[in-house]
Structures are given as structure tokens and as C-alpha cells.
Write a structure and sequence with these properties.
The protein has helices at residues 32-40, 77-92, 108-116, 131-136, 159-168, 180-186, 197-202; strands spanning 17-23, 44-53, 67-71, 97-101, 121-125, 139-142, 175-176, 208-210, 218-221. By secondary structure, the chain is α/β, with parallel strands linked by helices. It has two domains: 17-147, 5'-nuclease (Rossmann fold, 3-Layer(aba) Sandwich); 159-221. The strands form two sheets. It has a six-stranded parallel sheet with strand order 3-2-1-4-5-6, sandwiched between helices. The protein is elongated, with a radius of gyration of 18 Å.
Length: 224
């Protein structure tokens, strides 16, 4: 059966129903309040889902007002499920505005498809958001550090972090994120609980600078 989005009369900003989808593997839970505030300016945010890997940090599970969707299994499973459920929500025709919070350019295709269905898309992200992702949205709002929740304390540098600093090397260059697993394994550095290096580094933003996901993404040491 060929499903088509059910057309609804569009509401003015601040009046209609809003569907909010958050890439929890890409943005930290410290931005949860800023994300809700930005989405709330469009209307009533009735759908508030954040997608994250099962083995990833659990901070989003405690974020007030969100339904955390944990995804196990295949690589990029969180991205795929977010896209599927956003498309399903669009086909139901129950929402007037869509908000996607991420720094990942892979959601550009989803944003373009939603706009083609006549659905406005507000993109939310940080200064790391690629231009291709920003341009795909009807509108893009930058979530700067000035609007984050209470800043995270600087994490204590563990023996593991010291070894990672040496493995990553010069902070201006860093290392390709896709090579980190094999590189660290070759140096006898065991993976963190859950086995996800990106998830581990995301919990220490004062030590690691992570580029958005993708084959060319890199990790840089910024902890001094």
C-alpha cells in the first residue's frame, strides 16, 4: 500500500502540534532544556523522542519531558529508527511542525523529504553542524553553550584518558573516529563498558572534540 501524508490545515507558529526528534548519540543531554524551549516556540510539543544507542551514556534517560528510545544492534540503528518514526509521524498527518535536533548531516535527506511533503522543519544543532544539514531545514537554530543547562563539571582525567591522549596525538590533527577501535586495540587499550568509544568520549566534552558521525569524522584531544 502506498501511504501518503494526510494533509492538515497548517497552524501559525506557536499554535499547532509539534513533533520533536533528538539524535541522542550526537547531542548531549545538557542541551535538553534549550531544545525543548526552541521547539516550544513553534507550538505544543506533543511528541518528544530522543534516540540513543543501548550501550551509550544514560544521561538522556533522566532528561525531563523526553521519551528515551534505546536502540540495540546494527551500526546507525538510532539514525534509521529516528528517520522511520519521523516519516511515520508525517504520514499520520497529526503534526504541523517537525523539529530535528542533531549535528549529523545524514538527516539532511529526512529534512528535505519532510519539506517536500509541505511540513516545515526546524533544525537544531551546535556550531559543529555542517552547512549541508543547516541548509536542508526550513529554518535552523544554533544551540550555543550560553543556553545549555548547568555546565558539566570538568571530568577527572583517568589513566584511560591519559592513554587515549597519547593515542590520539596532536590536538590540531586528531585521529579518524572510524580507526580508533583498531588503533586502541593494537595498543592493548581495552574498550570502555559497552564497547562504544564515541559514547565514552561524549561524556567527557572537556577532554574530547568529536566531529559529527560519518566516514570522515575525527576525534581530537582538547583536555590540555
Amino acid at each position: 500500500m502506498d501511504y501518503q501524508p494526510v494533509r492538515m490545515t497548517r497552524q501559525a507558529a506557536g499554535v499547532g502540534r509539534v513533533a520533536l526528534f533528538v539524535d541522542g548519540d550526537n547531542l548531549p543531554p545538557s542541551l535538553s532544556t534549550a531544545i525543548l524551549e526552541a521547539a516550544g516556540r513553534l507550538g505544543r510539543v506533543d511528541l518528544r523522542r530522543v534516540y540513543a544507542a543501548e550501550a551509550g551514556p544514560k544521561g538522556w534517560d533522566e532528561a525531563l519531558g523526553f521519551r528515551a528510545v534505546r536502540v540495540a544492534g546494527a551500526k546507525n540503528g538510532t539514525d534509521l529508527l529516528l528517520c522511520i518514526e519521523a516519516a511515520e509521524a508525517a504520514c499520520r498527518g497529526a503534526f504541523d511542525q517537525f523539529v530535528i535536533a542533531s549535528d549529523d548531516r545524514d538527516f539532511s535527506h529526512l529534512a528535505c523529504w519532510l519539506r517536500e511533503q509541505g511540513l516545515p522543519v526546524l533544525g537544531l544543532g551546535t556550531s559543529k553542524s555542517p552547512e549541508a544539514w543547516r541548509a536542508a531545514c526550513s529554518e535552523f537554530t544554533l544551540l550555543s553553550s550560553a543556553v545549555q543547562d548547568t555546565p558539566r563539571p570538568t571530568p577527572v582525567m583517568s589513566d584511560l584518558d591519559l592513554r587515549l591522549r597519547q593515542a590520539i596525538g596532536r590536538k590540531q590533527i586528531g585521529k579518524p573516529m572510524k580507526d580508533m577501535g583498531s588503533l586502541l586495540s593494537a595498543q592493548g587499550i581495552a574498550p570502555p563498558p559497552g564497547g562504544n568509544w564515541r559514547a565514552y568520549m561524549m561524556t567527557r566534552p572537556d577532554l574530547y572534540d568529536l566531529e559529527p558521525k560519518g566516514p570522515t569524522a575525527r576525534v581530537r584531544w582538547i583536555g590540555g
